[in-house]
Specification:
three-stranded antiparallel β-sheet, mainly alpha, 9 helices, about 65% helix
Length: about 230
């Protein structure tokens, strides 16, 4: 058999389906931080044997979304100040690289794509739908990274954006005006469309810095030492 004989797999494995659904539940808060995952209960809910369930959960352990405690089992990760700092500093590195590529490519097309996410965010704000706001917020950043055209940046960002989604519910409650989030993203688009590299990068960094300060008071991406990761 040669590599040319290999055919694409069209069906997602049982373990893959379970991992995807658990990942979604963690991301949206249906499985909150610190939740213990019981094999018996989950196997009954998914109506599967423990084999594919364990395989799925090990996928999430390797992604960093579940932690294993000896003699106790698996738990959804908790995100402390050190974790928040770590997530956003890693995101800054990835999204900065993505933004630079976007600035040097088809800026108008990228701007239009990003505007779609901002429009969704504004609509969700008008409907007072916090979950939809966070989904649109995350979609903005996914779209920016995808616009880089780099498969590696997209791959590196995948788990970070899931962890970010876990942060966004807490972030939501720190804004007096939800429109502030919309405005921050809009200003980034304006700088991108204008090809103003320095302003676009500064706005993106300020956006990340603002989130870190809100989620982990006393912590800064630019002005303090990194807190320990829990």
């Amino acid at each position: 058999m040669s590599l040319s004989d290999i055919e694409p797999v069209s069906r997602e494995s049982t373990a893959g389906i379970i991992a995807r659904q658990l990942r979604e539940a963690i991301m949206t808060g249906a499985l909150p931080p610190g939740t213990q995952l019981g094999e018996t209960d989950l196997a009954a809910r998914f109506q599967v044997s423990r084999g594919p369930l364990r395989e799925a959960m090990q996928h999430l352990v390797s992604e960093g979304l579940l932690r294993s405690e000896r003699h106790r089992g698996l738990f959804v990760i908790d995100l402390g100040p050190g974790d928040v700092y770590d997530i956003y500093s890693a995101r800054w590195a990835i999204e900065r690289a993505a933004l630079l590529r976007a600035l040097r490519g088809d800026r108008e097309q990228v701007a239009v794509t990003l505007e779609q996410a901002v429009t969704e965010m504004a609509a969700a704000a008008g409907a007072d739908d916090p979950s939809a706001i966070s989904t649109a917020d995350l979609r903005f950043h996914e779209a920016l990274i995808e616009a880089s055209g780099s498969k590696r940046l997209v791959r590196m960002a995948r788990t970070l954006l899931i962890e970010t989604r876990m942060c966004l519910a807490a972030l939501q409650g720190t804004y007096q005006r939800v429109e502030e989030r919309v405005e921050e993203h809009t200003h980034i688009i304006e700088a991108l469309r204008a090809g103003d590299e320095a302003r676009a990068l500064a706005l993106l960094e300020a956006h990340m810095e603002d989130a870190v300060r809100r989620l982990a008071p006393g912590t800064s991406l630019t002005q303090s030492e990194a807190p320990p990761v829990g």
